[in-house]
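Running this now, will post back.
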Amino acid sequence: MNEPSPISERYRRGMETRRAVLGDSHVDRAQSISTEFDRPFQELITEGAWGTVWSRPGLTKRERSIVTIALLAALGQDEEVAMHVRATANTGASRNDICEALLHVAIYAGVPAANHAIKIAKQVFEQMDADQTTRGEA
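Update: finished.
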C-alpha cells in the first residue's frame, strides 16, 4: 500500500518524546498492532505531534499534558483523555492540575464535557492507585 518512509530526525525525536510521555509499553503495543494501512498515520503522529509539537522547548511536558487533556476533554475524545491522564505519571502533571484544567473545560467548552472527562479521570486515577497498591508502591 505505502512504502515506509525513511526514519527522519523528527521521527526519532518524536519516538523518544512519545515513549517518555506515554511509556514504552503503550508505544510498543501501538507499534505491534500497526499495519500497512495505518503505518503512515503512526509516522505522521510520531513526527507531527510528538516530534514537532510535544518536543518544542516553549512548554514543559507537564504544561503540554494539562493543555492536551483540556483540549481532548473539550472535544469529547474519551479514550485519548484516559490515555493522557495515565501519562501524567510521566509528565509531572498532578491530579490538582488536571482538576483545574477540567474546571476551565466546564466554563469554556461546557459542563457536560467536563463532567464526563472528570468521570474518566477518576476511573483512571482509581486504576493507577490500584496498580500501585498491587506493585507495593503506595
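Residues 60-138 form a domain with the AhpD-like fold (CATH 1.20.1290.10). More later if anyone needs it.
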